[in-house]
Specification:
It is a single chain. By secondary structure, the chain is of the alpha/beta class. Helix 16 packs antiparallel against helix 17. The longest helix has 27 residues. The two termini are 19 Å apart. It binds zinc ion. Zinc ion binds next to loops.
């Protein structure tokens, strides 16, 4: 459990899950979309929540290719851990000397073969990075890891470098040993040609030199350093977030504070040449302020990082730092302009084929842009936050798409995040600028309602059922009165948002 919590720390399972039921009209449109698409005989039209049959179908699938078709045509992996059952690497480019492999994991990894070694984009969480290293090394057994690129500093993307370096040292030492023996056989067998104190691998005793052998170069955007500093500074807070998400007690969660720093940082763009391969790295702000997306021009392959995750963009998460819906949308359009042949996401399965990739990128850009533009328009018109969150919506043609279903986020939360970025924390409600303590307010309300028990009763009365936010608000006041224990607050969070 602890491992599961830590593995998921920043990006996925720790984040808000708020299923939003579709209206009848939305469901009809959704149905029309799915049945108009390339139909998968395994796919049964239903609401976006995955069902037993979805999970069973996914469970039977042995390859990423099968999953790609199933999910593109409307199947859902919500509630199923599709990365739990290891799949063979999906070969995005099988051209000798520039093979590109995609490994489906909790957070995906992408490996590019070059004449100087592997380049791996994202190295996994500390729960998954061992398995990732083993599977990638088995796929390309003669190559060490030369360069790791982190698409951002979330904890499910940045672990395992130590393990790779140990693997590299063993691999390179073995290769040197083999070469040394080969050389040795070619000279007079009575002559000891070893020149170093370690005759097997031809290395000196220097610890530095041994350390250098196999060292991985880690490349990331410069803001990754700030993220790691923040993780160290807010370790307790992040522990609370995880306790809330996983309904555990904070004492049972131990969030690590030591991070491997990148070796090469960049600001806006970076072109990396590793042996025979060229990779273009671009920075834009989206889910994070330290995001990198990667373009492989020869293969025309795009690695999006978490700019694309097979869910509605996680652009307004209530418990997380600032996100950037407007810049995110623009970044997706930049990616689309490159006309990728394949999209490799930070989470979920690849999308292959130029037409599908264009659809995925541009529809997601539209989704964000609609929310962003309307929010800014209403802010400029002087509307307050309450008005805006209830007057911004996304057309069902977008929200019903298989890769834009609400899971970690939804429109209302994204609006709040845009408001925070451009408008600060005050929602323009005078009562919220310097409010009375909630406990005092709750006590007054309870008195007016005829006592706490009556208030509790009212909170669940049928006449208020249509006002979905009334009960939690009242319940919250009762909680303020009855308990301030974190465990109670955490349970309240869960009953509200999951
Ligand atoms: Zn992620």
């Amino acid at each position: 459990m602890v491992l599961a919590v830590l593995g998921a720390l920043e990006c996925r399972s720790d984040e808000v899950q708020q299923p939003v039921p579709h209206s009848g009209e939305q469901q009809q449109q959704q149905h029309a979309h799915y049945t108009n698409g390339q139909h998968n005989p395994n796919f049964v039209v239903h609401d976006w929540e995955s069902t037993e049959s979805d999970n069973a179908v996914l469970d039977r699938m042995e390859t990423v290719d099968e999953m790609m078709e199933f999910l593109w045509n409307g199947g859902s992996f919500h509630g199923s851990d599709i990365w739990q059952k290891p799949k063979p690497l999906y070969l995005v480019d099988d051209t000798p000397s520039r093979r590109v492999g995609f490994l489906l994991q909790f957070a995906n990894s992408i490996a590019v073969e070059t004449s100087d070694g592997l380049v791996v984009i994202d190295t996994g969480s500390f729960m998954t990075s061992n398995a990732i290293q083993q599977q990638l090394s088995a796929w390309s057994p003669s190559l060490p890891l030369h360069t790791a690129i982190w698409t951002h500093g979330h904890q499910d993307h940045v672990w395992g470098i130590d393990r790779w370096e140990a693997y590299n040292r063993d691999l390179l030492a073995g290769q040197r040993r083999q070469q040394h023996r080969g050389d040795h056989d070619m000279v007079d067998e009575t002559t000891d040609t070893a020149q170093a104190s370690d005759p097997d691998i031809g290395l000196s005793d220097s610890a530095d030199e041994k350390q250098k052998l196999g060292k991985v170069r880690v490349v990331a955007h410069r803001a990754v350093l700030g993220r790691f500093a923040r993780y160290r500074a807010t370790r307790g807070y992040n522990t609370q977030i995880n306790a809330r998400q996983f309904e555990g007690e904070p004492e049972g969660i131990d969030i690590p504070a030591d991070f491997r720093s990148p070796d090469l940082l960049y600001e806006h763009e970076l072109t990396l040449t590793v042996g025979s391969e060229t990779l273009h790295l671009f920075h834009d702000r989206g889910e994070t302020d330290d995001a990198t997306w990667v373009w492989l021009p020869r293969s025309r392959v795009l690695a999006t990082g978490d700019f694309f995750i097979w869910y509605a963009p996680n652009a307004g998460n209530p418990q997380k730092v600032q996100r950037y819906a407007g810049e995110w949308s623009a970044a997706l359009r930049k990616m689309a302009a490159l006309k990728p042949r394949a999209l490799l996401p930070g989470h979920g399965v690849p999308i292959v084929g130029e037409e599908r990739v264009q659809q995925a990128l541009l529809n997601t850009a539209d989704y964000l842009e609609i929310i962003f533009n309307r929010t800014i328009e209403l802010m400029n018109a002087g509307k307050d936050l309450d008005y805006i969150i209830h007057h911004v919506s996304v057309p069902a043609r977008l929200s019903a798409l298989p890769y834009l279903r609400p899971h970690y986020d939804e429109t209302e939360f994204i609006v709040r995040n845009i408001w925070r970025l451009y408008g600060g924390w005050w929602d323009l409600n005078p009562a919220h600028l310097k409010p009375a303590p909630r406990q005092a307010l709750g006590q007054e309300l309870a008195l007016l309602a005829g006592g706490y028990e009556h208030l509790a009763h009212l909170a669940h009365a049928p006449q208020y059922a249509h006002m979905i936010d009334v009960a939690p608000v009242w319940t919250n006041w009762q909680l303020e009165r009855w308990s301030s224990r974190p465990s109670i607050r955490n349970r309240a969070w869960h009953s509200r948002v999951t």
